[in-house]
Amino acid sequence: MIRLKLLKSFSFRLAMWYVGIFALTATVVFGFIYWAAVTFMIRQTDEIIESETWGLVEQYDERGLAALSMQISSRQRSGSSQANIYLLVDREFHYLAGNMRLWPKSIEPRGFPEWHTISVTAEDVAHPLEARVFVVTLMGKVHMLVGRELSDVLRAQAVMARAMAIGLLCTVLMGLVWGQMMSNKLLRRLDDVNRASRKIMGGTFTQRIPLTGTGDEFDSLAKNLNDMLDRIGELVVAVRQVGDNIAHDLRSPLTRLRSRLELALLEDPDPAAQRQAIEDAIDQAEAIIATFNALLTIARAEAAAARDAFEQLDLAMLVQDAAELYEPLAEDKSITLTLNLETGAQVLGNRHLLSQAMANLLDNAVKYTPEGGAIRVEVASGEGESVLTVSDSGPGVPETERGNVLSRFYRLDQSRNTPGSGLGLSLVAAVARLHGGRLELGDNAPGLRVSLSIPALQPA
Predict the structure, then answer these.
(1) Of 115, 77, 117, whose CA–CA distance to 98 is shortest?
(2) Among 153, 368, 458, 459, which one is most buried in terms of CB atoms within 10 A?
(3) Which among 317, 409, 394, 385 is positioned nearest to 363, based on CA atoms?
(4) Backbone angles phi, psi at 129, to 5 degrees
(5) For position 205, what pLDDT does the model report?
(6) 320-331, pLDDT tens digit by residue?
(7) CB 437 within 8 A of CB 455
(8) Residue 446 preceded by cis peptide, ω within 30
(9) How would you write the chain as a 3-class SS string?
(10) How far apart are CA 457 and CA 349, in angstroms?
(11) 373 contacts 394 by C-beta, under 8 angstroms
């Protein structure tokens, strides 16, 4: 009888209504997070496959089919990732290399890169598996398929689905227990989330989910979503800035390149003049390519995926290798290059990116140090960090400009007649951020002192 009265009470029915709305809204929110996470994982898998594919295509362009087959076989034998799938066939679909033997019947190459999600059987697995594959046709002669099997992604999706289902169930149960008392409060909070979400989806990207400061689950969820939106906004702004910088800084060299080629066509046939025009065009093209390569390196340094290649490194050995490359350039300018490298400076980092950063620092030092000057390179261990310092006797950088020179494409007035793109220190700063370190510019009186600090690897 009491239970019947309870079921008929208006307040209980109202609370159940609020709990139902809350459960539905929570489902939408969790569904959005699940969709965003799954989309991100698939996109990350696609990026890995694309990078792998274009690396192999570059091998083919530079060294031919035999080198491509050997590279595929080498990667297959290395076993670095059992999830990788390779297949190289000729135009008649005869096997050339890879851990698949037969070209999938469901894929008909159309001559341009294509994405497919198919079931395949690799040499090292006994049953078909779902895979994401990228298909390219090389010069119309061979077809190449590169992919990764998706079992890890599918398992992650299943775990996420279960976790979100459990979380949603717990939320609904808590709502049933406390719904009568908290229905109005929960409804207001959900309305805030819904309003913010609608504004964001409507184009107001500066809108954020409001926090009440209570530190409860809703505040935690809102903070995570706000952090995610902030990060997305930063990436969008960075992409827009890079696009604007590329359009601004590459427009002039491309225009000059076109003008020189057009003038060469209009002038009377002169082998020497035409050869000079071609050489000038090649120099311009190399400068443009160098700029793009620098931007790609910065993008890799700013990507969290670069941390996957972290390994234990001896900072002094990396600096020694970089210094050996620049010693001949320093000798040509009668520059004294002094090394003071402390052994045992162990760091955890990406070898390629750290080597590129050190090369950039040495390149700048040699480039801007006048003939007969001096460069000093030091590696020392501080409190919990290893510090690389490059000091030169060049013109230095004014204190008011030291923050600006770390920006992309920024060059001082005295540097504009010197070859370069203004991306060297930007790359070093990006590498420092990736490794949790910092880049500092100081006065060497005269000259510039650049210090790159990286957290030291703590002994086990």
Answers:
(1) 77
(2) 368
(3) 394
(4) -140, 150
(5) 72
(6) 888 888 888 888
(7) yes
(8) yes
(9) CHHHHHHHCHHHHHHHHHHHHHHHHHHHHHHHHHHHHHHHHHHHHHHHHHHHHHHHHHHHHHHCHHHHHHHHHHHHHHCCCCCEEEEEEECCCCEEEECCCCCCCCCCCCCCCEEEEEEECCCCCCCCEEEEEEEEEECCCEEEEEEEECHHHHHHHHHHHHHHHHHHHHHHHHHHHHHHHHHHHHHHHHHHHHHHHHHHHCCCCCCCCCCCCCCCHHHHHHHHHHHHHHHHHHHHHHHHHHHHHHHHHHHHHHHHHHHHHHHHHHCCCCHHHHHHHHHHHHHHHHHHHHHHHHHHHHHHHHCHHHHHHEEEEEHHHHHHHHHHHHHHHHHHCCCEEEEEECCCCEEEEEHHHHHHHHHHHHHHHHHHCCCCCEEEEEEEECCCEEEEEEEECCCCCCHHHCCHHHCCCCCCHHHCCCCCCCCHHHHHHHHHHHCCCEEEEEECCCCEEEEEEEEECCCC
(10) 9
(11) yes
Strand partners, 73: none
Q: What is the mean pLDDT of residues 97-111?
A: 82
Count the residues in the chain.
460
- ∠ CA(315), CA(318), CA(324), 5° rounding? 140
Convert the pLDDT of each residue in 379-395 to its tens digit.
888 778 888 888 888 88
Contact 175, 189 (CB under 8 A): no
Q: Decide: pTM greater than 0.90.
A: no
Question: Would you place residue 211 in the very low, low, confident or very high pLDDT band (cuts 50, 70, 90)?
Answer: confident
Amino acid residing at 126 = A
Amino acid (1-letter code) at residue 451:
S
- The encoded tokens of residue 86 equal 């390779």
Are the C-beta atoms of residues 372 and 366 closer than 8 Å to each other? no
Sequence-ordered list of residues with C-beta below 8 angstroms from that of 407, at least 6 positions apart, any chain: 426
| 95-98 vs 84-90, strand pairing mode | antiparallel
Residue 117's Cβ-count burial label (10 Å; 0-12, 13-18, 19+) is exposed
Which amino acid appears at position 88 of this protein? L
**Cα separation of 223 and 230, whole Å?**
10
